[in-house]
Design a protein that fits this description.
It is a single chain. The protein is mainly beta and 127 residues long. It has a domain at 7-88: OB fold (Dihydrolipoamide Acetyltransferase, E2P) (Beta Barrel), CATH 2.40.50. 8% of the residues lie in helices and 44% in strands. The protein contains 1 helix and 6 strands. The chain has one helix at 51-60, and strands at 7-13, 18-21, 27-35, 43-50, 66-79, 85-98. The protein has a 5-stranded mixed β-barrel with strand order 1-3-4-6-5. The longest helix is centred in the middle third of the chain and has 10 residues, at 51-60. The protein is globular, with a radius of gyration of 21 Å. The two termini are 31 Å apart.
């Protein structure tokens, strides 16, 4: 679905992702991403993921993990039982992945080359 707003944020997950299901059976995950500007206090951004993305985030993302979230902004408005007007601005994620910027693993060639099949230039690509 195309929206006229999009947002991308990289930050640390401030609380464990919370997986719930709607009455229709759709998965939804709520999490908070902390973004630390160069100056000032951290900004805590609520993020919501739906369906398959929600399942994947619940399975792979933990508190403290650095994530990259892409999605769109959604403003929700409601009124409390006391009659007070409330608003909440959140990111509805279209993509959410673990950031690899500070990954601790390094890529290396395999030390055991017995199972590696060499590719000759005469071999055709199978697709």
């Amino acid at each position: 679905m195309a929206y006229d707003n999009s947002v991308s944020i990289v930050g640390n997950v401030a609380r464990e992702p919370e997986l719930k299901f709607t009455q229709a059976g759709h998965a939804v995950v709520s999490l908070t991403v902390a973004w630390n500007p160069k100056e000032g206090d951290p900004v805590f951004v609520p993020v919501t993921c739906w369906r398959d993305l929600a399942q994947n985030v619940a399975d792979t993302v933990v508190r403290g993990a650095r994530v990259h979230v892409q999605g769109y902004l959604k403003l929700s408005k409601w009124e409390t039982k006391e009659g007070e007007a409330r608003e909440r601005l959140e990111i509805v994620a279209e993509e959410c992945s673990l950031s690899q910027r500070f990954a601790s693993k390094t890529a290396a060639k395999p030390s055991d080359t017995r199972n590696v099949v060499p590719i000759r230039e005469s071999d055709e690509v199978p697709f």
